[in-house]
């Protein structure tokens, strides 16, 4: 390997943030907090261990994902309930907010819409921050455990990975064949998962989630949402993420109506204002 004489100088160049986010439309966290304080529960579903479930959240309502029996991570998909082509865009969310999201940050939708889908309005694990290994919670790095990568690496056919779980749940919810549902399944928000990148090889790592029963994360739906949540077969992802051996627990999803009057005058964000002319 030929190392240039100015290698240290090149490495010492200061980084530049790709997408400074100080001009992003800021959520009204005072109003959202008021909506949460007086909210009323209207629905509840359970994602069983090594399985997934779909749920609907009207715009302006709140949904909560909770650990209820033991440490468990979940893979979350979000769609516009009225147009499944608009869905959560983990890559752009990562570019705008960072590798992990918490209170006051948002999940953003795919092109050409690129608008907030849901805003995190409470996170009981916000205290975790970034640990000594560079790990943090609620990542938008990982894709989702899937049977294709498992087949590539181990030659097996494991069906209870998050991709397959979400595919089955969406197919059942929509009443369509698996082959029709699968293309809508997309990269996830890894709820409660503790992850980062190794400093020596830059590899994606996971470690035992700090989540415990009672921990939860609350989102305000910015548009009408269809959600899908898989209780990952890796449990707390301390050792494996596609396994029949890991201890796994259910995750609870609750939907709440906001406090009466708290969102008067509030409207869903409009799709992105770009004119879509693409230079022609």
Describe this structure in words.
The chain is an alpha+beta fold and 280 residues long. It contains 6 helices and 13 strands. The protein has helices at residues 7-11, 29-37, 90-97, 147-154, 162-174, 178-181; strands at 40-47, 52-57, 62-67, 74-80, 83-87, 106-108, 116-123, 136-139, 189-197, 204-207, 216-221, 225-231, 251-257. Strands 2, 4, 5, 8, 9, 10 and 12 form a 7-stranded antiparallel beta sheet that branches. It is globular and about 65 Å long.
Largest sheet, in brief, is:
7 strands, antiparallel
Rg, Å, rounded:
20 Å
Q: How many β-strand stretches? A: 13
Distance between the termini: 46 Å
Low-confidence stretches: none
Overall helicity: 10-25%
Q: Structural class, from secondary structure content?
A: alpha+beta
Order of H and E elements: HHEEEEEHEEEHHHEEEEE
Net shape:
globular
In round numbers, the mean pLDDT is 96
Query: How much of the polypeptide forms β-strand, as a percent range?
Result: 25-35%
The number of helical segments is 6
What is the compact description of this entry?
17% of the residues lie in helices and 29% in strands. With 280 residues, the chain is α+β, with helices and mostly antiparallel strands. The strands form two sheets. Strands 2, 4, 5, 8, 9, 10 and 12 form a seven-stranded antiparallel β-sheet that branches. Strands 1-13-3-11-7-6 form a six-stranded antiparallel β-sheet.
């Amino acid at each position: 390997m030929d190392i240039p004489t100015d290698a240290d100088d090149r490495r010492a160049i200061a980084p530049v943030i790709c997408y400074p986010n100080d001009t992003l439309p800021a959520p009204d966290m005072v109003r959202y907090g008021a909506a949460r304080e007086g909210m009323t529960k209207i629905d509840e579903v359970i994602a069983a261990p090594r399985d997934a479930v779909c749920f609907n959240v009207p715009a302006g309502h709140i949904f909560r994902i909770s650990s209820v029996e033991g440490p468990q991570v979940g893979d979350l998909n979000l769609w516009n309930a009225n147009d499944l082509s608009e869905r959560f865009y983990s890559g752009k969310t990562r570019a705008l907010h960072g590798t992990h999201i918490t209170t006051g940050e948002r999940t953003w939708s795919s092109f050409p819409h690129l608008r907030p889908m849901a805003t995190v309005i409470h996170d009981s694990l916000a205290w975790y921050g970034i640990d000594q290994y560079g790990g943090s919670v609620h990542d938008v790095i990982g894709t989702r455990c899937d049977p294709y990568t498992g087949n590539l690496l181990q030659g097996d056919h494991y069906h209870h990975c998050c991709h397959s779980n979400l595919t089955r749940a969406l197919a059942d919810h929509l009443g369509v064949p698996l082959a029709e549902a699968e293309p809508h399944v997309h990269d996830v928000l890894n709820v409660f998962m503790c992850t980062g990148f190794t400093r020596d090889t830059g590899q994606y790592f996971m470690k035992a989630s700090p989540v415990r029963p009672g921990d939860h994360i609350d989102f305000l739906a910015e548009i009408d949402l269809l959600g899908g949540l898989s209780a990952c077969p890796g449990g707390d992802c301390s050792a494996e993420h596609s396994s029949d051996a890991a201890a796994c627990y259910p995750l609870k999803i609750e939907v709440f109506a906001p406090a009466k009057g708290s969102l008067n005058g509030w409207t869903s964000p409009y799709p992105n204002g770009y004119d879509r002319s693409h230079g022609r």
